Amino acid sequence: MFSFIKKISQKKGLPPGTPVYIGEERTEKVKLTIIDYDGDKFEMHQAETVEECSHYKEKPGITWINVEGIHDISIVEKLGACFDLHPLIVEDIVNTEQRPKVDISDDYIFIVMKVITWDEAAKVIHVEQMSLIFGSSFVLTFQEKQGDLFSDVINRIKNNKGKIRKSGSDYLAYTLIDNIVDNYFKVLENIGEDVEDMEEELLDNPTPETLHKIHFIKREMIFLRKSVWPLREIVSALEREETPLIKETTIIYLKDIYDHTIQVIDIIETYGDIISGMLDVYLSSISNRMNAVMKVLTIIATIFIPLTFIAGLYGMNFNTKKSPFNMPELNWYYGYPFVLGLMAAIGIIMLIFFKKKKWF
What pTM was computed for the model? Predict the structure, then answer.
């Protein structure tokens, strides 16, 4: 189970705009990928230094720079200086505990989102922060670690499929956001399968391990909701904002993302309700199991009450030969088997009675 809160206290006492990396410790080299394209050409290569990126700032066409790894603050700062990003923007990029949000300025739009992936082996979700900045002719993306998150988008650009090569930076930004939202559905499908398995286990044979699984996935669903819910505000703000950076033709696609976001939130809330209900079912199941055990023990105890009385009565060892209250069974030849038979008959009669009453 991963920690939801990292060491934000590292920023204590520092002036605003001071970039401090907050996230998992990483040592791998930061990967800079430059993708430059228009309707006729496509270029993609790995940059060794930030200075290579600066050459694309004034070039015609659309330039997408994907940064995989934000633990090297100097690279983020240099790239921010190259594209005239505000120091507060750079500070938010390297803070992986930043709440998803959107900041709209005259020259660029800054978006923070959470990327959710599913670990099939460990049956857990992994959360990564992704920062996206786009201006009139450029798009910058900052990922916490290296991966193939945008491989499908890159292939579409490379093979000139769809409208990306014919559209502006705003449409590329939409495509990247849509790619992240679509990945939410994949994660939720996997979570849904786990929820169904837990429901079957809960009904068949609930164990303390089942309770741990329910609490674990409930915790993850709460964090998933926290990560996805602000996305609705982000897309809604992009729809409403009147800015030359977003064309009218792209707003239609943003509305489609908004619909998908609402659908994701609905699924998350539905799973949350199901998991909360599973806790109630687990407690009820354990209670019913305990009641069943207590019912059996009560029936056994009830049957032995008259048997214990008879055994105690004949076990007092009183010599009653000269007493007016004579107990002839004590000296009767068949007294012992008679008492055993009487006990057995009482037990059988009580069992038949309980059965007819449907008490077990």
Answer: 0.77
Digit-coded pLDDT (tens) for 64-99: 999 999 988 999 999 999 999 999 999 999 988 888
Instruction: Considering only CA atoms, give the Rg of the chain.
Output: 36
- Gap between the Cα atoms of 34 and 44, Å rounded: 6
Name the helix (H) or strand (E) containing 360: none
Whether 139 contacts 164, CB under 8 Å = no
Any alpha helices (H) in the chain, and if so which ranges?
Answer: 51-54, 73-82, 87-93, 151-158, 169-204, 208-240, 248-313, 335-356
Structure tokens given for 319: 């010599």
| Burial group, residue 257, by CB count within 10 angstroms (0-12, 13-18, 19+) | buried
Cα distance between residue 79 and residue 62, in whole Å: 17
- Backbone angles phi and psi of 104, in degrees to 5: -115, 120
249, two tokens: 């033709």
Contact yes or no for 162/156 (Cβ under 8 A): yes
The greatest distance separating any two alpha carbons of the chain, rounded to the nearest whole angstrom, comes to 126
Is the pLDDT score of 259 beyond 80?
A: yes
Pairing between β-strand 62-68 and β-strand 138-143 as defined by DSSP bridges:
parallel
Residue 132's beta-bridge partner residues?
Answer: 111, 141
The yes-or-no verdict on residue 12 having pLDDT over 70 is no
